[in-house]
Amino acid sequence: MADLTDKQTFSDEDALEFHRSPTPGKISMAPTKPMATQRDLSLAYSPGVAIPVLAIAADVDKAYDYTSKGNLVAVISNGTAILGLGNLGHMASKPVMEGKAVLFKRFADVDSFDVEVKTTDPDEFITVVKNIGDTWGGINLEDIKSPECFVIESELQDLLDIPVFHDDQHGTAIISTAGLINACHITGKKLEDIKVVLAGAGAAGLSSIGLMKAVGVRAENTVIVDRDGVVYKGRPSGMDQWKAAHATDTPHRTLAEAMVGADVVLGLSAKGAITKEMVASMAPNPIIFAMANPDPEITPEDVASVRSDAIMATGRSDYVACAQALAALAREDVPDEVAMAYRGRKLKFGPDYIIPSPFDPRLIWYIPPFVAQAAMDSGVARKPIEDMDAYRTELRSRLDPSAALMQNISGAVRAAPNKRVVFAEGEETAVIRAAWGFKQAELGTPILLGREDLIRQNAAEAGLNFDEMGIEIVNARVSEHNVDYTDWLYARLQRRGYLKRDVQRMINQDRNYFGAAMVARGQADAMVTGVTRNFNMVLKEVRRVLDVKNRMIGMSILLAKGRTLFVADTSIHELPNAEELAEIAIQAAETVRKLGKTPRVAFLSYSTFGNPPGDRGEKVREAIRILDQRGVDFEYEGEMPPELALDPDARGAYPFMRLTGHANVLVMPAIHSASISTRLVQSLGGARVIGPLLVGLEKSVQIVSLGASVSEIITAATFAAYDEGAAAEG
Known about the structure:
Largest sheet: 6 strands, mixed
Strand order of the largest sheet: 7-6-5-8-9-10
Mean pLDDT: 85
Strand content: 5-15%
Radius of gyration: 30 Å
Number of strands: 21
């Protein structure tokens, strides 16, 4: 709820064009099953569809198994309270309802369709929704005016056996309460002591004040104001049962009177309802949530002009458990993906950031388990969750295709003996945050290389309490191992043109040399580096300290559409010859086995088994002959284009092919094809690429890309710890 949106940067025509082009509206339908053959169509429709029809007829709950019902939400409105614009009719609400459907898909991977009901009569509205309600797994009511919305929601909850949620009530209540919890945390105020004023007694306002009371705000410390003035006990007009439930004994009769000395004002009314004079009269460190939409009751600029101590937020762009979870998540380190969404703006918990950004990728897996647990504890859950960790993993995978793989890798790292991982560029803020995340996830013991005073300073600026981090810091210049590392590395390099003073300088001044020496000499198990230097430079430095155990390769992991593909070599061999291609395949297959997969190797090429002929194709064919002679213990085949490697049904003209299924290890003919293809797939979207991972060194070192994000560094460190564990077991 912190005001993370900039001032409007688009014109009215921009907004119209966005909704008009290239296709009118914001949503469409996409099939989840292939529709490429006659068999596909027969299964999707007649006659195949008759089988699930009969199954559902016998047991209606089977609809959750055989249709999209379980992941389908209806967004329903009659347009009587559109944003802050009022009653503009059911069709005028359609852009908003489509927008909410897009949000469901973008941020939760929940499918949704909008329904606009042409009636303002609550009973008629209820009848319509009741009769079509079984279509969905849940209903989100939206932009329905008060007090009718309370009746509609309550009746539909009684009539339907699916969740019915009124966003204006519950969504606003959850987010504003989470913001209040954290705003009080920042200002040092206690919920039971604060005075709260609500400007706007509609559905959103009354639900918000109700939830705030549930988390600790005292009823006698609240004042509600509507268009007729303060809602006080005994007010003769403009009252209903919902307002009356929150009426208080108060001498105040206007919003201006109520806000004198108030700690919090919650605006859910209209543009301009709160003035600068009202804000100036509030208590020290006032908390101002101006959430009228699309224009707030007062702008952040106006608040800042009269109060420098205010926490200001706007509303642009069992609920207690959800509010508490949102508040807790906001206090965690903010992922880099959020900064990317806000054009590089670095966010951290404080007066300007009190609830998580909607772009925080953790929301989809962090919040739902709290809500699910509350539903189970209250007895309303129809299908209790037996394994909450597995549920979190499934939620992660909804928007992050790498989640399942990383969950397995992380689980193996946690189960193995604790690994000490060197984070070589320890003074970098991203590296400090990554080390913190690595430690918090219990993946091992991070060691930051650098000057302690600078590391502590950068950690504090990132909002991390370093005294609570429990992370070791090593300064190469003053390390007790400095002499030992210098002598050991000099003995290694003295016949390669290095003087001892050269080696002393390398150990003292270059953290890659020092970190690699720590790993080589047994003071650490693994290392991650590369944030501040390009890959080739880092690799040369590491290679002066560590030997190659087997063939060294770079292997990228590509995750898309439910598939996991391993691509080699993506970083080391520029134009590999036949012998090198065979070695790359062997090393990649061995690595894939360590990751728990059965390797099926395809050598990719522009040619298909010699047609058309060419030099690169011949090298691939020679690599196949080498593997034939060696009698390796994994499936392999080539040379072939990607479609033959990935689709067994496309191999009809090549009955001699030895692959028993789709290939999962793709050996590229050269580094340029490997690098270009993986980056292209990632750039197009819908896939995630991890790596390239460095494979084959005698000790575990991972080199991230220049300027890598926190999540990329953590992933590399996790693989470094995993690889060291696998090497130790081997």
